[in-house]
Structures are given as C-alpha cells and as structure tokens.
Amino acid sequence: MHVEGVQSLVRNQSNAGESREFEQSASDLFLTQLSAYGVDYFFANGGTDFPPIAEAFARAAESGTAVPRPLVVPHENLAVSMAHGVYMTTGRPQAVMVHVNVGTANTVNAVLNASRDETPVLLFAGRSPYSESGRHGTRTRYIHWAQEMFDQGGMLREAVKWDYELHLPEQAGDMVARAWQVAMTAPRGPVYATLPRDVLADPIRVSRPDAGRRAAPAAPHPQPDDIRTLADWIADAERPLIVTQGAGRTQAGFDTLARVAERFALPVISFHPRFLNIAADHPMNLGSLPGGLLAQADLVIALDADVPWIPALESPPAGCRVVHVATDPAYTRYPMRSFPADLCVAGEAADVLSAVEACLDRHEGLDRKRIADRGAALRAQSRALAAKRVSADAVPSDGRIGPEWLSACIGEAVGPDAIVVNEYPLRLDHCPQTCSGTYFGLSAAGGLGWGLGAALGAKLANPDRLVVATLGDGAYMFANPTASHWVGEAHDLPVLTVVFNNQLYGAVRNATMAMYRTGVAARSGGRMLADLSPSPAFEKLVEASGGVGFRVERPEELRDTLRRAVAVVTQERRQALVNVLCDY
C-alpha cells in the first residue's frame, strides 16, 4: 500500500484555456490511495466541488493508473446504500463522494444505517473553496459562499467514527489511510472527510513515502477468564438460549454458530436478523421470536445482538444469567441500553464460539446425557416449527395475498443461491434460506430507502448472482425509484424488486394500534398518518429505465409472474419489478 509522494507530470488546462504542466495533485493522490487500500468503486454524486476529481479520473484513465471505478449515482442516500451493499457481500469498504453540505445532508439517513450496522463506508464531501480569488480552484460560483458552513462535519459527527477536513494537498494520502484504518477498526463503521476544491487542485510539493503504512487493528480477542466462565455457565445450564441478530455477518460466524449450537444443544433465535445467522433446516433453529424459550431460559447468550428482546413485552426469568458477546458488548454508542449483563465478552462471534467450544471439549462438568436429551427435545420443536411454514403450493382460497405466502412464493421462485435484500416485509421464517450470505436485512437504525440501493450494490459486487430486493411500498418510495432504476440501467445492474404493496406505512399503523388499541385511531384500523392510498402504478416506474414491470392482484397470478420476472433478470439481463397488492 505504498504510494509515492510525487509520481508524474500530467497536463491540464487552466481556466483561461492555457496549457500548463502540473505535478501530481491532491486529487490524483486521493484516488490512487483509495485504490491502494482495496477500494473498488467510487460512488459519485457531484457538484461544483468535483472538477479536480473529474480531472484526476481522466488523467488516470489516460495514463493507466489504478484508481477505483467511478459510478455516477443521482441521489446521495442511494450512493451510500450501494456502498453498504458492496461491503455487506464482500467485506471490502467503498468510497462515496457527495456535494458539499447539501449533499452531506442527503446522506444522513444512509450513514445512520451504516453506523448501526457496523458497516465501514469511506464518505467524502466537497467543501466550498477556502480562497475567494487568486488560486486555482478558488470560488467561481454564486453558491460557493452560501454553501460554506462553520462545521460541515457536525451534521454527521454522531453517526461516524471519525471526521476530518483536508487542509494540505500532501495530506491526501494520509487522510485516506487514516479514514480506512478507523473505519476498519472494530466495531467498524462509516467515516467522513471534507475536501475543499482549491486544496484538491493543489500540486503536491512534499513527499510522504509512508502514507500507505496503516494497518487496522485486529478485532478484540476474548479474554481466557471470560471464555472459561461462559463455558462453565453453558455446562451448568439446563435451558440455555442464544439470541442473535448478526452472528451470520461472516461465513465464519455462520459456520461456527451452526457447529457449536448443534454439538451442545443450544437453541438459536434470530430476532430481527440482519443476516442469515442459521440455516432454515438447522436442528437448533427455533425461529425468530424469543417467546417461550426466553421465558424459561436459565442462560441467555446475546450473540451480536444489540436488542436481544423487548423488555416492555418479554424478559428472561429472575435468576437467568445473561451474557453479551460482541466486539463492543456494552454497545457504548447507544445512549441508553439497560439489558442485564452478568458477563460481557468482547470479540467476534466466531472467535468467541470457537474458544468456548474448545473449553467445553475438555470441560469435566459437561453432562453429555443432558445435552443429548435437550437436543432431542429441541429437534422436535424445530421440526414442529418448520411444519408451520406456509407452502407456496397453499394458494389462498380467500383471494387475499398475505406476506407469509408471498414470502414462500419468492423463496420458491428465486432459489437457494439468490441474494435477498429485505427492507422489512419479507417473512424469513417462510422463505427458508440455508446458505451464508444469502439474506440481508435493514439496519437497526431503520432508515427507509436502504433496500434497493443495497441490492444494487450487492449486484455490482456479485454480477453473476440473482439479487432480489423485497420492499414495502413506503420503503420503495423512499428508495428514490427513478434514481435507483436509472442506476440499474446505466450501470447494467439488473435487480429483481418485489414490492409488498399494502398501501400504508405498516410500522406507523402497527405502533399506533399497539399503543391505542381501544383509542379513536383504532376505529379506522390505525391508518391515521399511515395511509398511502391511492397507490401509484409502481410497475410503470421501472419501465422508464428499460425494465419490465408486473402487477399482481390475485393469488393465482403470483407464482407464474415471479417466475417470469426472474427470467427477465437472469436471461434478458434487464431489471424487473413485481408490484404485489397485499392485504396485511
């Protein structure tokens, strides 16, 4: 990752049209350093601050210099969500650059999602030029005064791990290195830097040969005493329970959880899963609701779970031991989080579980018969739960399409290898997935508009795989569909979008009904401030960007329509959207 301070002379045109020689500029070094750190894509939503970046990309193309691939993305929320989608399927952080303060403002929703999802994004924004005259890159547009802020980074400071402003051109390489290092240090997350136009345009006069020497620290490793304590408690427990949201973030986490859960008869609940944590057919998969298992547990392991249960609705019994396992098991960036914690173990899920497994293998107090008996009972529970899954063959006789049956039909149509990106409506219990890296759910921050952008990013990083975005109608509108479908066509990213269209904001309706079930708002079914009717013809929007749209109103139309939509995406390599009118 070594980057020379001064590499070559390149030719540029001044504002006056005169030809002149420039040494490598800050923008040149900025892009080459991004590439040196493994950044593949540069998602750009540009403005008048971008000319040095545009020139640097053009120079790189002419000279054959390695830089990230630039992609124009006509909305900032979409750009950050695409970077999120690339990272979640590859583990490689990507770069986004937006236009000064107004562009930054449009990223906040997506940055909040990335922050709570521990997703590193290298976010950059232009800044009004420092100089008002006399320098290359100085202020030349009316907006350059009004767009300057005293603290542009303040808009994002609570959501990012680090923010900075580039002051000197020779700092460009160090800035990228520092941004990458902080973003990739566990717990990972987004970072932000502002880049004044006149600084980006400046030639580099000072060599910084060590600008590429920045390694990210390894994730925290669990302490041996903590591992022994956790192993003792597992050996002692009669009714242990694992609740997880993110153990399946990595292949290693998925595999280790599967092995340890089966070997020691540890039931697993994927509560509000953001990844596929355990295969649908795994004998220790006990679904997505803590319920009775939580109420009876004598040991709860919250494994990469920021919210393992909702205390206002349910809690483990008195005397139950509670263990939190995560890279930051206290979730120190959450202002208030009051779950009981008898033990906090810092480390990646795979590392902690592997260490516990090794400790249990030599544990003298392990009751093998109790584990075998518990395992047999849990297998029976898991089979009974699986038997309740809705089948795609069970076509509703009442003419209504519910989310469970729609989810089952999607699973049937897309197969086990598709990447499913779900922004709320898909019922994973009824769309059984078995392979790691095939399911991704919305961040705990709940910023709508993420799903379609994340799916496009996943498709960019996985061009040969079918990528499916399952969205509610509200989430689809928040996704800036015109911009999203333009990206799908312009960058050859055919994604299948399925809209669960119930013509309302389900979260608003459900929350209102939960708080005021006997109130006045309940008389209209909780639709106050949640009604999204009349519903647009969403299927027409994708057609404006060369895609194919389908509308489904009756159950008997659904399965064949989904098959046709999959064929459009996989065989014709065109984006497709299925607008399914649902009743839920």
TrEMBL record:
Keywords: Plasmid, Thiamine pyrophosphate. GO terms for cellular component: acetolactate synthase complex. One of its GO terms (biological process) is isoleucine biosynthetic process. One of its GO terms (molecular function) is magnesium ion binding. Residues 227-355 form the Thiamine pyrophosphate enzyme central domain. The keyword Aminoacyl-tRNA synthetase does not apply. Residues 437-579 form the Thiamine pyrophosphate enzyme TPP-binding domain. It holds the Pfam family TPP_enzyme_C. Signal peptide: none annotated. SUPFAM superfamilies: DHS-like NAD/FAD-binding domain, Thiamin diphosphate-binding fold (THDP-binding). Residues 26-147 form the Thiamine pyrophosphate enzyme N-terminal TPP-binding domain. NCBIfam families: PRK08327.1. Belongs to the TPP enzyme family. This is Thiamine pyrophosphate-requiring protein. It comes from Azospirillum oryzae.
